[in-house]
C-alpha cells in the first residue's frame, strides 16, 4: 500500500485518505493508490460505502503542476493518466462520497465529480483554475461539470478559473451537503445514509437533467466566448474551454471527453501554458531567500501604524484592515487625517457597489483603522510603515522619532519607491529592524510588494516582512537596495525609451497601442499620466538622472510638467482626460513634441509596432540583466513576478525575462547591440546578457544554476 493513500474501515465505511503534502496533488502515486484502495474497498464485503478525503490542509488541489511543466516543455509524460480511475470511481457499486475541505481544484474537483456524492465543509473552495495555467481541464471536468451545475455556471467557472464557496456549490448542485463539524465523521454518516437508500447510484456522466435544451445552447456559448474575450484578454485557454463545454452540451459523454483531450493537448505545450506555468512556480519561488530559512523567527504582526494618510498610506491601511490587522493611521494635521479616512471610506463604498464587500464588512474594516495625529501609542504596534511623499530629510526625521518610541522587536518599514533604505535605517538608530516595503498604487489592490533588504536588515526582520506580505494576500519579492530597487529601476529605461520614440517620430497613442497590443495592461504614457508626471519629474531631479556626459535627456516630459500638465490628477498630461478618465490624444501635446524635436534638431521618422516593442521591452530586459547581475534581484523569475504583478506585464508571456528566453537571448543581444551602435551609450548591452547570449543559454537556466547556491544560503 503506497503511503500517499491509506484505507481504514469503520462501521461499514471505507475511509480512503490521500496524504501527499503540501496540497495532495494528483501525482501518479496518488492515482495508483486510489485505484488500489477502491479495488480493496469494493472487494471488502464489510464495506457498504466509501468516503474519499484529503489529509492535511486540503482535498486534492489539482494535477501535479510539476508534471504539467514537463509536458509543456515536450516530455510525453506529465499529463495525469486518470481516465481509468474516473471510470472506476463512477462504476463502483457502493456509494462513493467525496469529502472536501480546503481547495478542491482542477483534477481534484474532477475526481470529486466522478464520485456519486460530494460533501464539503463550509469554507471549502471548489474550482477549475486550469485556464490560469494556459490549459483546460483535462480529466473530464468540462464534461461532468455542466451535467452537475448546468452549462452557464460551468462556463462561468471554467472561463474565470475562480473557485466557488461551498454554499454556492450547494445551490448550484455541485455538492449534496455541507458538513458542519468534523468532516470525516459527517461524510461517513452521510455515506451510510446513501448506502441505506435503494436505487441506482447517480453517475454524473449519465446526468442530462442540468443540460440546457438545444435551442438555448448557441446563446449560452456565444455569451461564454464573449465573456472569455472580454474578461481574459489575449488568453487562448478561456476561449478554448468553451469549445470543450460545447461538446458536453451537444455530444455523447465519451465523444465529449475525446474533444476535451484534443483541446487539452493542443494547449498543454503552447507558449501561453509554458509562460503561465512558469509564472505559477515563479510566484511560489520568491519565498526562497538567502539567510531566511523556515527556522528564522518572524515576529507576529497584528497591530500596524502607518505614517502618512495620503494615497499610499490610505491604500496600505485598507490592505491591513482587509487582512484583519488593526491600524493606527496618522498624519501631521486633523484635516490630513480626516481627508485620508474620507478617501478610504469612498474606496470601500466603490467596493460595495462592485459587490466585493457588504456594508457590514466595510464597517468591520473601518473599525480596525484608528485615525490620529502624532505618534501616540506607537509603542505597542508590531510594525510601523512610513508612507509620506518622497523626501529623504522627512523620512529620516520620522524614522528617528518613531523608532525610539517602539518596542525593541518593532519593525520600521519605509514605503519609499526610490530612496536609500540604508540612510533611513541609520537615522532610525536600529538598522537591523529597518527595511523597505514598497507597495504599488492602489495598495489595497495591487498584489506586489517589493521587500527591500538593507545592509543591516536582520533575517528576522526580513522573515517578518515576508510573513506580513503573505498575510496581506500580497506577493512579497525580496530585492536589493539601490536607486529604484528592481521594478522602478527597470521601468526608467523602458519609460524614457518610449519618450525618445515620440521625440523621434512616433506618437504617445501609437506607442501605447503597440504596448497594449503586446499585452501590457496599459501603455507607458497612460501609466505615466496615472502615476503623475510630477512623480517622475521629482525623481529625475532627486536622482540627478541623465547627468552623465552625452546622455540623451527626455525633453518633452519636463516641458509638460512646467506647464502644470501632471496627468490624470490635472486633467491633462500626455493625454487629455474627461470625466470618464479615458485618455484622449491632445493635438497641443503632439505640436509640443514636434516643436521640441525641431528645436533640438531631432530627425523624425515613422516606426513600426515591432520596432516600438523592441525599443521599449528590450530596454526593460537589458536593465533587468544588469539588476540580476548586480544581485538586486535574486532570480530572473523574481523580476518576472515583479513585472507581472506590479507593472502590468502580461503573465501569459511569463514576464520580461521569460519572454526574453522565448525570443532568444542571442536575438535580444544582437538587437540591443545594434541599438547601441545607432542610439548610443544608454543601449550598452548588459554584460550578463552578452554572456548568456554567447553561451546560448537562458535566464531560466541561470536561475536553475544559481538555485543551488541560493537555497543553500536560505536553509
Ligand atoms: N501541483 C504541484 N504543486 C503544487 C500544486 C499543484 N497542483 N499546487 C500547489 N503546489 C505547491 C506550490 O508550488 C508550493 O510549493 C506549495 O504547494 C504550496 O502552494 C487534469 C491538468 C492550492 C490554492 O491550479 O492555486 O489539475 O513553493 O504557496 O497559497 O484538469 O497552491 O512550497 O515548494 O500556493 O496556500 C489545477 C494550484 C492544476 C491549483 C494553495 N490546480 N495551486 O495556495 O500555497 S491543473 C491549480 C494553488 C489540473 C486537470 C488539470 C494554490 C493553493 P512550495 P502555495 P497557498
Model description:
This protein is α/β, with parallel strands linked by helices and 715 residues long. The chain is 51% helix and 12% strand. The chain has 30 helices and 19 strands. Strands 12-11-10-13-14-15-16-17 form an eight-stranded mixed beta sheet, sandwiched between helices. A six-stranded mixed beta sheet has the order 1-2-3-4-6-9, sandwiched between helices. A three-stranded mixed beta sheet has the order 5-7-8. Helix 4 (107-114) packs across helix 5. The radius of gyration is 28 Å and the shape is globular. The mean pLDDT is 95. (2S,3S)-3-hydroxy-2-methylbutanoyl-COA is lined by residues 22-23, 25, 61-66, 68, 80, 103, 105-107, 110, 129-130, 133, 135, 137-139, 141, 284. (2S,3S)-3-hydroxy-2-methylbutanoyl-COA (T1G) binds at residues 22-23, 25, 61-66, 68, 80, 103, 105-107, 110, 129-130, 133, 135, 137-139, 141, 284.
Amino acid at each position: 500500500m503506497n503511503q500517499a493513500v491509506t484505507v481504514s474501515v469503520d462501521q461499514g465505511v471505507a475511509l480512503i485518505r490521500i496524504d501527499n503534502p503540501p496540497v495532495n496533488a494528483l501525482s501518479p502515486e496518488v492515482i495508483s493508490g486510489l485505484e488500489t484502495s477502491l479495488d480493496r474497498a469494493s472487494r471488502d464485503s464489510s464495506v457498504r460505502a466509501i468516503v474519499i478525503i484529503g489529509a492535511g490542509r486540503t482535498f486534492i488541489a489539482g494535477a501535479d503542476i510539476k508534471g504539467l511543466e514537463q509536458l509543456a516543455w515536450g516530455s510525453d509524460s506529465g499529463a495525469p493518466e486518470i481516465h481509468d480511475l474516473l471510470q472506476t470511481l463512477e462504476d463502483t457499486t457502493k456509494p462513493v462520497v467525496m469529502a472536501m475541505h480546503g481547495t478542491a481544484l482542477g483534477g481534484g474537483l474532477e475526481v470529486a465529480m466522478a464520485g456519486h456524492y460530494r460533501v464539503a465543509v463550509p469554507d471549502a473552495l471548489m474550482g477549475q483554475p486550469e485556464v490560469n495555467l494556459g490549459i483546460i481541464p483535462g480529466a473530464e471536468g468540462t464534461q461532468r461539470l455542466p451535467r452537475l451545475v448546468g452549462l452557464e455556471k460551468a462556463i462561468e467557472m471554467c472561463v474565470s478559473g475562480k473557485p466557488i464557496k461551498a454554499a454556492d456549490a450547494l445551490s448550484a448542485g455541485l455538492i449534496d451537503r455541507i458538513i458542519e463539524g468534523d468532516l470525516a465523521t459527517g461524510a461517513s454518516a452521510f455515506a451510510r445514509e446513501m448506502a441505506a437508500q435503494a436505487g441506482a447510484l447517480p453517475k454524473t456522466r449519465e446526468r442530462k437533467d442540468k443540460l440546457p435544451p438545444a435551442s438555448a445552447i448557441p446563446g449560452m456559448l456565444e455569451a461564454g466566448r464573449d465573456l472569455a474575450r472580454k474578461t481574459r484578454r489575449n488568453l487562448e485557454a478561456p476561449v478554448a474551454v468553451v469549445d470543450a463545454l460545447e461538446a458536453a452540451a451537444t455530444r455523447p459523454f465519451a465523444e465529449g471527453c475525446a474533444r476535451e483531450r484534443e483541446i487539452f493537448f493542443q494547449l498543454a505545450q503552447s507558449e501561453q501554458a509554458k509562460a503561465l506555468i512558469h509564472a505559477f512556480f515563479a510566484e511560489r519561488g520568491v519565498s526562497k531567500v538567502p539567510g531566511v530559512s523556515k527556522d528564522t523567527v518572524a515576529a507576529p504582526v497584528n497591530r500596524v501604524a502607518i505614517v502618512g494618510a495620503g494615497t499610499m498610506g490610505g491604500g496600505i491601511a485598507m490592505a491591513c484592515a482587509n487582512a484583519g490587522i488593526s491600524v493606527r493611521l496618522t498624519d501631521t494635521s486633523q484635516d490630513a487625517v480626516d481627508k485620508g479616512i474620507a478617501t478610504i471610506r469612498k474606496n470601500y463604498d466603490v467596493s460595495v457597489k462592485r459587490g466585493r464587500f457588504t456594508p457590514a464588512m466595510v464597517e468591520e474594516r473601518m473599525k480596525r483603522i484608528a485615525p490620529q495625529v502624532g505618534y501616540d501609542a506607537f509603542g505597542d504596534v508590531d510594525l510601523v510603515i512610513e508612507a509620506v511623499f518622497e523626501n529623504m530629510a522627512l523620512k529620516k526625521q520620522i524614522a528617528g522619532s518613531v523608532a525610539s518610541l517602539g518596542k525593541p522587536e518593532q519593525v520600521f518599514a519605509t514605503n519609499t519607491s526610490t530612496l536609500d533604505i540604508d540612510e533611513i535605517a541609520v537615522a532610525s538608530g536600529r538598522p537591523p529592524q529597518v527595511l523597505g516595503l514598497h507597495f504599488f498604487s492602489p495598495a489595497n489592490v495591487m498584489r506586489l510588494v517589493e521587500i527591500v533588504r538593507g545592509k543591516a536588515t536582520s533575517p528576522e526582520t526580513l522573515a517578518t516582512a515576508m510573513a506580513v506580505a503573505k498575510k496581506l494576500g500580497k506577493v512579497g519579492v525580496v530585492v536589493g537596495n539601490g536607486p529604484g530597487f528592481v521594478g522602478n529601476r527597470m521601468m526608467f529605461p523602458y519609460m524614457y525609451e518610449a519618450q525618445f520614440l515620440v521625440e523621434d517620430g512616433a506618437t504617445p497613442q501609437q506607442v501605447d497601442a503597440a504596448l497594449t497590443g503586446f499585452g501590457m495592461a496599459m501603455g507607458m504614457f497612460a501609466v505615466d499620466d496615472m502615476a503623475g508626471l510630477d512623480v517622475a519629474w521629482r525623481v529625475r531631479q532627486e536622482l540627478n538622472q541623465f547627468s552623465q556626459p552625452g546622455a540623451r535627456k527626455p525633453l518633452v516630459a519636463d516641458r509638460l510638467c512646467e506647464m502644470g500638465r501632471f496627468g490624470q490628477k490635472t486633467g491633462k498630461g500626455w493625454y487629455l482626460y474627461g470625466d470618464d478618465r479615458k485618455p484622449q490624444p491632445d493635438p497641443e501635446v503632439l505640436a509640443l513634441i514636434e516643436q521640441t524635436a525641431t528645436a533640438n534638431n531631432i530627425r523624425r521618422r515613422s516606426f513600426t509596432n515591432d520596432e516600438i516593442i523592441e525599443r521599449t521591452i528590450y530596454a526593460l530586459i537589458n536593465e533587468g540583466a544588469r539588476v540580476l547581475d548586480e544581485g538586486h534581484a535574486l532570480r530572473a523569475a523574481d523580476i518576472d513576478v515583479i513585472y507581472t504583478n506590479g507593472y502590468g506585464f502580461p503573465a501569459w508571456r511569463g514576464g520580461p525575462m521569460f519572454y526574453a528566453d522565448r525570443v532568444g537571448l542571442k536575438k535580444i543581444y544582437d538587437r540591443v547591440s545594434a541599438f547601441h551602435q545607432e542610439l548610443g551609450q544608454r543601449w550598452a548591452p548588459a554584460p550578463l546578457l552578452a554572456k548568456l547570449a554567447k553561451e546560448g543559454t537562458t535566464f531560466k537556466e541561470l536561475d536553475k544554476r544559481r538555485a543551488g547556491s541560493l537555497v543553500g544560503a536560505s536553509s
